[in-house]
Amino acid sequence: MNIEMASRQLEALGNTTRLTLYRILVRAGRSGLAVGQVQERLGMPASTLSHHLKRLVDTGLVRQERAGTSLICHAEYPAMEALLGFLADECCADESGCAPAQEAVAQAEAG
């Protein structure tokens, strides 16, 4: 991952509504949630939800797929793991035996 992509993803998650939305999708697991279900959980108008979803999709943190008449939203776990790894990769890089970095990488890999 490059710093530009990490910056875009962190910027997208820097919005309280998008972070809440993303956490809902992460909690939903690999099966994802229909847009209507997400809208119910957040209690927001469809147009507002669409705006926030677009930002997350554009940064690669979320993907959407059609299932019949429903639009299903999924957290992109590999993208999340890459972002977490990017943040932890250089933790204490100038200090030998940094336990926080080793623990963070192990947790990200355990998924």
TrEMBL record:
Q: Where is the HTH arsR-type domain?
A: 1-95
> Which keywords annotate this record?
DNA-binding, Transcription, Transcription regulation
Q: Which SMART domains match?
A: HTH_ARSR
Q: Which organism is it from?
A: Acidimangrovimonas pyrenivorans
What SUPFAM superfamilies is this protein classified in?
Winged helix' DNA-binding domain
Q: What is the lineage of its organism?
A: Bacteria, Pseudomonadati, Pseudomonadota, Alphaproteobacteria, Rhodobacterales
Instruction: Supply the NCBIfam families for this chain.
Output: HTH_metalloreg
Q: What name appears for this protein in its UniProt entry?
A: ArsR/SmtB family transcription factor
